Each structure stands twice: as structure tokens, then as C-alpha cells.
Amino acid sequence: MWQYIAKRTGHAIFVMWMVATTVFVGLRSVPGGPVRAMLGQEATPQAVARLQADLGLDQPLHVQYVDWLGGMLTGDFGRSITSSEAVGTLIASAAPKTISIAAFGVVLGLAVAIPAGIIGATRRNEPADYTATIGAFVGISMPAFFIGILLAIVFGVHLGWFPVVGYTELSEGVVPWLKSIVLPGIAVGLPYAAGVTRMMRSSLIETLDEQYMRTAVAKGVSSRVQLYKHALQNAMIPVVTIAGIQLALVLGGSVTVEIVFGIQGLGRLLVNSILERNYPVTQMTILLVAGIFVFMNLLVDIAYTAIDPRIRYGGEQS
Amino acid sequence: MSDGAPDFARNEGEFGSGEVPPEYETEETVEEYKTTTQRIVAVLKRDKLALAGAVIVVAFVLTALFAPYVAPHGPEEQFGFMQEPMSQSTGDFDGDGSMETVTHYLGTDDFGYDVLTRIVYGAQISLLVAFATVAFAFTAGTTLGVLAGFYGGWIDTVVMRGVDFIWAFPTIILGVGVIAVMGGLGWMNVVVAIGIAFVDDFARIIRGEVLSIREEEYITAAKAVGMGDGRIMFKEMLPNAVSPLIVQATLMVPFAILGEASLSFLGLGVKPTTPTWGLLIAGGRGFISQAWWISVMPGLAIMAVVLAFNTLGDGLRDAFDLSEGEVN
Q1: Residue ranges of chain B with per-residue pLDDT less than 70
Q2: What is the pTM of this model?
């Protein structure tokens, strides 16, 4: 088990290193280089040289690369070009907003999806199943930002229950904070819930058809509840995988949903930095979001050890 | 040997005979070969939901193709600002000197453009980009996957590592990153930006198929008669692995539509003269308290076409008997 965890952690670190290297190389291979792109085609060679020296771009590539990786490991992420604020500060103020929305979305999504999927599988072809299936189908067919706009119109503009614009810090009270993330959280949570519901339903149906489920009945597992518990442990394995992979949907969704609700999170930071050609901010934001995704999936892999005994006892080699 | 004695050597009797007792007889039927097209038609005949999806998809494609004939007005024609759905405008719109009354079925936006007209024209870019995106991912992913599966070894390792790596990015973040590097003006950039995220899905599927086909006898035969690698891969293997790819492509189109809509909603998509659905939604965002229909109507258009593609894709997936783990 420890060997498995170590292997997965190593793989996650390797993927992050590759992501970092690609972002580094990618942004430096922009035609004319990032400085040209930032200053425009009419910039004087002196101005270009000065900014290049400022950013350390006049160094040989391998020196830049080592500096950059070293800076990241020591927490020095460089400075924003437009506001000369430290990139770390900008991200520290934006990240909690995005993470709050995403976390709310995931918790809500799982709280809806797992019961809905179980109901769908155990009451197949009953009205409850149809409702869950159709709901999930509609859920995967709507972009998160559109759900956000619908929610804002109904619950913000017409009912006035929740604010339509802005984010309230957690330090200003739990209730105002919750109120400010409920609508964006639902907007990113629903497509997530839809994907997980579908997986939960089909996985549980498949497990209930397995031979060992019939064996369990034959052995005298009498109550349906016990039977479902038995099935659920096996049915959960692919669901956990999908729940991890679909986090991409939540993270990507919160980037657009933040814009709907005028929240200055990572999404807004990323889009603005791209439009302003503010490369130090762009690369760190991309790295952070990819990093959150890789890290969460590492946690999912480790969670397997809890639900899948084959991994716990070192049987599974994959 | 006397006449009455049983002849054991002839192996007769209840269990001794070479015949299989009727209750153990298995029916051996070789499934009749059907072309991919025949199978798709069969799905549509049987699965009414998939058929409905297909009809809506075709309707949207025709709308996009014949936008100038379908749209009630020109894309740049302006009327009163923020008129409600089903409201009417009266004026001389066709320039023939007489007044006529037109109905804005979906209202008008903050510039006075007819929302239905804008959605019809928006379908052109949204669908074109979505199809091009899937075509790009299909081509790139299939090529990489076939090479990885056929040659194995280091090619396989490199391709599959790359696939793992693409997977590490949420689609939108990858798209935004590519736009950051290439700039987001041309529609080709958007196609690549969203398409890269789907390359891995195609590569994984076709690699799995090739790995199982590689050991088939007809491949050995093809090698024995001296067929070149390229011809074996793309003439012998690919046609036998095409069904899961078609299903995957159908399932990817809605994701591509959503991806394109998200990028253009962020202002990082194609910058055309007539806006895409994502841009239309973004344009109406500031007016949700006065004129909800500006954002909601194009959103419903996205939802309808994505829903239609999803029902069609699901129907095909069930028909080709691919589990959800295998495809998508």
C-alpha cells in the first residue's frame, strides 16, 4: 500500500514537472517572444531589451529555467507586469474565492449525485429513476456559466435571496460568505452531479447483475439494504475515478461562473492576464489550477486504498 | 461377437455417443456482418430518443447552413432596444416604401438586434468550430493511437505519456493556455485549443483496439504478403476499429460545443463579425435584470443542440455495445 502511494505521488510530481516545463517552453515560444507580444510590434529595441533584462529573459534558456523552477520551489513566483505586485499575492487573494466555489460545488454535487444514482439503480424504470436520469442528462448538457445566469435571474434578480454580484470574505461571517458562494457553487456543482449520477447508476446496475451478488442472495443475505451495501462497495470504485476526473469540470466551470457573478477569482485573474499579456501571472495561474487538479486526483488514487482491498494488500499492480 | 451383445466399441447409448445431448446444445450463430452505416440506421429505427436527437441535430445543421434563408432578419438589422419576446416592430424594413409589422419571437438585444436572427447566425460559427474541433482531435488522436498501438515500444511510451499529460489539464484551462500562446483571433486557434484536450480520448480508444487487432490472423496474413506498415495500419486495422471512434466523435461534439461556448464567453474565442452563442450569452450578462432573454435564449440553443447530440451519442454507444468506461 505504501509502495502504491509512493508510486502515485511520484507520478503526480512528474506530471506537474512536465506541466511546468511545457508552460515555461510554451510561453517562451510565442512568436517574437513574450516581451514583443507585451509591448507590441512598434516597441523600440531599447524598451524591449530593458523589459527583457527586467524579466531575466536575456539569460540563456537553461539559466532561466533553473531560476524559474528554483523560484517556484522557494515560493518566489515573480511579479505581475502590469501592476508590479507579487504574483504570489495576486494568487493568494484570488485562489480562496475559486476554491470556495469549487469546494461548495463538489460537496453539493456528491451529496446530490450519490443518492440520485443509487435511487436510479435500485428503482430502475420507476418514476424516481426517470427523474434522476433526465435530470442528469439535462445537467451534462448545460454549460456552467449558463446555469449561473439562470440561477442569478431566478434567485438573485426575481426572488432576491442571494447576491448576484461579488464575493464576501469568510472573515466577514460564515452566513454572508455562504450566501455569496451558493449560486456559483450550484452552477458548477450541477454538471458535476450529473456526470457522477450517471456513473453511479450504471456502475451499481452492473454490480447488481454480477455473479457474486447472486451468490450473496443464495447465501442468505436477506434484506435489500444489506444487499445494496454489499454491492455499493464494489460499485463505488469507478464512481470515485469519475468523481476525480470530473473535478476538471468544476475547476473549468468556476473559471466561467466567476465571470457571471463578478467574482475576482482565479478565472478572472487568468483571463485578464491573457488579455493583458501578463505572462508571469498567466503561467502561475495555469500551473496552480493544473496543480489542484493533479493533487485532487492523487487524493482520489490514495482513497482507492480505503475502498479497494486489492490495492490495500498490494495485489493490484496497475 | 454375438448379435445380442451391445457393441461398446461403437460408442452408442445415452451418454456414450458423440452427439451432444439437446439440453447442452449451444446455438451457434455468427452475427451477420453489417456496415457501420447499417448499424447506425438500425439504432435510429429502434431507439426513438436517439432518432429525436438525430432529427434535432440535422435541424440545427440545416439552420446553420441556410442561415440567411432561415433567419427572419439580417444579422445587422436593428430594431428597438431590448424588446420582449413576441413583441413587434413596425417600420419600413425592406425599403419598398410601405410599412410592415415584424414579430421578434425571441425579443431584441441591447443593440436592437433580433435575438432569433443572431442565434441562427451564431449557429454557423458554433457548429463549424465544434465539428472542426472533433475532426482535428479525431485525426490527430487516431494517428497517434494507431502508431502507439502498432509499434509499441518507445513510441507507445512517448504517446501515452503525452496523453497522460493532456489529461492533467481541465479542458478549459488547456484551451485558455493554448490561446495564451497562440492568440485567440482565428478560428483555427480555437479549434486547436479545444481539440487538443480531446486528442487523448481518441488516442486511448484506437490504441486499445489496435492492440487487440494486431494479433488477428488477417494482420499476420497482410504482413506475410508483404504489405507495408502504413497500409496495414490505415487500410486493414482502422476500418475494423472505426465504430467506437464514430461513437466517441458523436459524444465529443457536445463537449466541443460547450468548450467553444465557454472560450467565447470568456472573450477568448473566435472574434467574428456575427457573434457565437457564447459571446451572445456574455453580451446579455449585464442586462439580466432588465432583459433576461438576451442571455437565456442563446443558452437554450446551446442546451438543445448539446442535449440532442448526447441522446444520439448515448443511443449509438448502447447499440455498438461499448461500456461507458471504454468510450469517453
Answers
A1: 1-33, 92-97, 183-185, 321-328
A2: 0.83
Q: Measured between beta carbons, which residues in chain A are less than 8 angstroms from residue B282?
A: 259
Residue-by-residue DSSP string for A4-63? HHHHHHHHHHHHHHHHHHHHHHHHHTSTTHHHHHHH-TT--HHHHHHHHHHHTTTS-HHH
The cell numbers describing B202, all together, are 481518441
Does residue A273 sit in helix, strand or coil?
Answer: helix
- A256 vs B262: CB contact, 8 Å cut-off? yes
What is the per-residue pLDDT for B89?
Answer: 73
Give the type of residue at A259.
Answer: I
Distance, in Å, from the CA atom of B183 to the CA atom of B185, rounded to the nearest integer, reads: 6
Sign, CA dihedral A190-A191-A195-A196, equals: negative
Spatial distance between the Cα atoms of A126 and A121, rounded to a whole number of angstroms: 10
The whole-angstrom distance between A89's CA and the closest CA on chain B is 21
Which residues in chain A show pLDDT less than 50? 316-318
Chain A environment of B306 (Cβ under 8 Å): 141-142
Which residues in chain B touch residue A133, judged by CB atoms under 8 angstroms apart?
none
Nearest CA-CA distance, residue B155 and chain A, Å: 18
What is the CA A124 to chain-centroid distance, rounded?
A: 31
Distance CA A20, CA A70 (A): 12
**Testing the interface with A: which of B163, B167, B173 to mutate, by most A Cβ within 10 A?**
B173
CA dihedral A295, A296, A300, A303 (to 10 degrees): 80
> Which residue type does A240 have?
V
Supply B61's cell numbers.
445543421
**Across the A/B interface, how many CB contacts are shorter than 8 Å?**
128
The three cell numbers locating residue B281: 450569452
CA–CA separation, A211 vs B20, rounded Å? Answer: 27
CA separation for the pair B274, B117 (Å, rounded): 10
pLDDT reported for residue B328: 46
pLDDT in tens, A104-153: 999 999 999 988 988 888 888 888 888 888 888 888 888 889 999 999 88
